[in-house]
């Protein structure tokens, strides 16, 4: 049974909820840090390492999970990881010491390192033609929503019911995603990783220059964004003299801009190419950063102007990941989607660490140079990406045949049922089809094979009733 809504299949929103859960759980400690420190009787500096260890564990575990030659379906991997993730958060209710709490955070991070790459890979693999960008962007919305809604909600829950309730909230999010995935994730995912045989076979799609370039670009773009985002509070206080209350409002506006940018990016990717979208949003990002650098020279400036630039920056920053992920999936192929997304997730954390270091260095030297440094890193990533974008555009043009865009989702010898919405429209797509294959493909997830072809006479654009010189589908 398929569960569909106007906004997309329900399983896609289940994957988005899974991404929302693991991203919220990463930073949820920040809002309850004083309370946790009081309970474990340690300083906030030491307790804050719960976030550091979670992020480090995730960065190291994501490629490890993806490259293990395990014969397990992506669906089972997702559901198993979400089960462990929920249990690790629920177990926080039973501990009140630092070491057991740290151990539970490590377990939760190990599970999260499997959830997010698998969710992105499943969204990309199951997306119909011309909708891969939108599906990836929808899952990425879960990450944006975690920053905008998840962490504040966890902080509010912790203030009302105690800091342990915050982790209970994270566990409930994971269990909710688990139940939805069990009910709605397509059965086709049961065979998504069944062909893994050896480490060499899984690494082969990743060992090419294009994938390496995309990983480097991922590190640079994340570093440029985090160099500014990490120190956004002191920068905004300096450029517009904002109070903590105004800062909170500005951050909410930035979060809304990020949500809009993510969704717009997905639609643009499906309409044009990932390379063009990456170029566009990178230029917008650089423009916003250079504008902030210019405003620093004439500070203080009106808060309204700062808010407009902040929304533009956030929209461009969150529009970058779907385009890079789409380029990565194109280069690595759907068979290596999980490995590609896992390695790229680790690259994101490397970029985050680099961005924090770069931003901190410029903060010590001259705070007004932080946006310029961010723009420089983003421009460097754009220059490095040019060869990959040219190659991607050439591949996109080669796929176009006779004015019809056949996206190679299932390989050159297959058509997915998404491209066969009805018997009549399918007949216009291909003049020769296997009648029994077409009928089964429309009603199920079984792909149509080109090898079994039966000539079908077609007098016009529509199949008419059976008669002299005419045939109809059985």
From TrEMBL:
<dbReference type="InterPro" id="IPR020846">
    <property type="entry name" value="MFS_dom"/>
</dbReference>
<feature type="domain" description="Major facilitator superfamily (MFS) profile">
    <location>
        <begin position="11"/>
        <end position="390"/>
    </location>
</feature>
<protein>
    <submittedName>
        <fullName>MFS transporter</fullName>
    </submittedName>
</protein>
<feature type="transmembrane region" description="Helical">
    <location>
        <begin position="135"/>
        <end position="159"/>
    </location>
</feature>
<feature type="transmembrane region" description="Helical">
    <location>
        <begin position="277"/>
        <end position="297"/>
    </location>
</feature>
<feature type="transmembrane region" description="Helical">
    <location>
        <begin position="165"/>
        <end position="185"/>
    </location>
</feature>
<feature type="transmembrane region" description="Helical">
    <location>
        <begin position="206"/>
        <end position="228"/>
    </location>
</feature>
<feature type="region of interest" description="Disordered">
    <location>
        <begin position="405"/>
        <end position="426"/>
    </location>
</feature>
<feature type="transmembrane region" description="Helical">
    <location>
        <begin position="234"/>
        <end position="256"/>
    </location>
</feature>
<keyword id="KW-0472">Membrane</keyword>
<feature type="transmembrane region" description="Helical">
    <location>
        <begin position="369"/>
        <end position="388"/>
    </location>
</feature>
<feature type="transmembrane region" description="Helical">
    <location>
        <begin position="303"/>
        <end position="320"/>
    </location>
</feature>
<dbReference type="Pfam" id="PF07690">
    <property type="entry name" value="MFS_1"/>
</dbReference>
<feature type="transmembrane region" description="Helical">
    <location>
        <begin position="77"/>
        <end position="95"/>
    </location>
</feature>
<feature type="transmembrane region" description="Helical">
    <location>
        <begin position="341"/>
        <end position="363"/>
    </location>
</feature>
<feature type="transmembrane region" description="Helical">
    <location>
        <begin position="101"/>
        <end position="123"/>
    </location>
</feature>
<dbReference type="InterPro" id="IPR036259">
    <property type="entry name" value="MFS_trans_sf"/>
</dbReference>
<dbReference type="InterPro" id="IPR011701">
    <property type="entry name" value="MFS"/>
</dbReference>
<feature type="transmembrane region" description="Helical">
    <location>
        <begin position="48"/>
        <end position="70"/>
    </location>
</feature>
<keyword id="KW-1133">Transmembrane helix</keyword>
<dbReference type="InterPro" id="IPR050189">
    <property type="entry name" value="MFS_Efflux_Transporters"/>
</dbReference>
<keyword id="KW-1003">Cell membrane</keyword>
<keyword id="KW-0812">Transmembrane</keyword>
């Amino acid at each position: 049974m398929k569960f569909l809504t106007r906004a997309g299949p329900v399983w896609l929103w289940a994957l988005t909820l899974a991404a929302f859960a693991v991203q919220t759980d990463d930073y949820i400690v920040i809002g309850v840090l004083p309370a946790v420190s009081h309970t474990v009787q340690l300083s906030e500096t030491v307790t804050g390492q719960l976030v550091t260890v979670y992020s480090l564990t995730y960065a190291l575990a994501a490629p490890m999970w993806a490259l293990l030659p395990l014969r397990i379906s992506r669906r089972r991997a997702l559901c198993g990881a979400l089960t462990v993730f929920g249990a690790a958060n629920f177990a926080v209710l039973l501990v009140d010491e630092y070491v057991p709490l740290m151990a539970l955070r490590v377990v939760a991070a190990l599970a999260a390192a499997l959830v997010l790459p698998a969710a992105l890979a499943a969204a990309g693999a199951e997306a119909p033609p011309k909708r891969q960008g939108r599906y990836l962007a929808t899952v990425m919305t879960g990450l944006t929503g975690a920053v905008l809604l998840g962490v504040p909600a966890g902080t509010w829950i912790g203030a009302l019911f105690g800091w342990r309730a915050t982790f209970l909230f994270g566990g409930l999010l994971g269990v909710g995603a688990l139940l939805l995935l069990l009910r709605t994730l397509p059965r086709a995912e049961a065979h998504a990783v069944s062909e893994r045989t050896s480490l060499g076979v899984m690494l082969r799609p990743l060992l090419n220059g294009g994938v390496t370039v995309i990983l480097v670009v991922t590190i640079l773009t994340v570093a440029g964004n985090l160099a500014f985002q990490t120190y956004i509070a002191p920068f905004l206080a300096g450029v517009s003299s904002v109070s903590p209350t105004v800062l909170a409002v500005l951050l909410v506006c930035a979060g809304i801009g990020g949500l809009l940018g993510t969704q717009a990016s997905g639609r643009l990717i499906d309409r044009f190419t990932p390379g063009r979208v990456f170029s566009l949003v990178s230029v917008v990002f650089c423009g916003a950063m250079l504008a902030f650098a210019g405003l620093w020279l004439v500070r203080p400036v009106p808060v309204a102007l700062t808010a407009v630039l902040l929304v533009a920056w956030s929209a461009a920053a969150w529009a970058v990941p779907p385009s890079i992920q789409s380029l990565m999936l194109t280069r690595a192929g759907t068979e290596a989607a999980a490995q590609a997304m896992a390695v790229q997730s680790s690259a994101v954390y490397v970029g985050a660490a680099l961005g924090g270091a770069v931003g901190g260095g410029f903060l010590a030297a001259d705070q007004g140079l932080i946006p310029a440094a961010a723009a420089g890193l983003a421009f460097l990533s754009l220059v490095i990406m040019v060869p990959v974008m040219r190659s991607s555009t050439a591949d996109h043009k080669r796929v176009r045949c006779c004015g019809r865009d056949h996206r190679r989702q299932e390989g050159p010898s297959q058509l997915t049922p998404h491209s066969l919405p009805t018997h009549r429209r399918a007949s216009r797509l291909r003049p020769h089809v296997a009648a029994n294959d077409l009928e089964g493909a429309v009603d199920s997830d079984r792909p149509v094979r080109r090898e079994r072809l039966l000539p079908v006479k077609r007098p016009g654009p529509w199949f008419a009733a059976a008669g002299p010189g005419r045939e109809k589908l059985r």
